Amino acid sequence: MIFTFIFIAFIVWLTIAIKHARNKSDATWDSYYDREREADLAPNRDLTNLSYITIPLEKFPLNFLENTENEDFPMIVDELEQLNHTRLLNLNGKTNTDLKFEYGPKNLKEMQDIADRFSRATVLLTDLAKCFLEEKNPSGAATVLEYGSEIGSDISTNYTLLGECYKELGEKEKFDELYKHVQGMDFIMKNAVLKELDEMKTDQ
Questions:
Q1: H/E segment holding residue 146
Q2: Which residue from 49, 74, 91, 141 could staple onto 115, CB 3.0 to 4.6 Å apart?
Q3: Pairwise pLDDT comparison (68 vs 15), residue with the higher score
Q4: What is the maximum alpha-carbon separation in the chain?
Q5: Cα separation of 5 and 110, whole Å?
Q6: Looking at residue 116, which CATH number applies to its domain?
């Protein structure tokens, strides 16, 4: 008798739980589609005068690498120069719906391309920093990586390599500032980067 009562109570609870979950899921999808419809009706923004990013290659000590045997170096610089002739913006973390809301649905493809080019630029910056490190120049690498940090790169290597540079250069204050900076960021690899930086602290 007791078993039967418990079984019935469980079935009732399970039914209610499933119904609640289904209603919650339906509400989530309804909210998503409502927002998507609103985004499709957003005004199309003029993209002419946005605060586009230009990579300051002239501020990097590239002359130090003039005689490097790294075959990737000239290709990295060439691609960065080409990207500087395009529109670049940090749109990390923004969904397609966000982009339509902010810039208009007709500009979605252009904004996706702008975001992709920015992501490519951040990868190239870390590759450029590695060229300096191969030539035993952590100071030059740090200059490049600091700029990557400044524009909000979400490439984890940008921050772990910068931490290594500061450690090698004995820049404890800058290392601590970097750690605090990463703590305040919001990107997928944040915890992994902080863990690596913690390990570097331990080894200091």
A1: helix 138-150
A2: 91
A3: 68
A4: 88
A5: 62
A6: 1.25.40
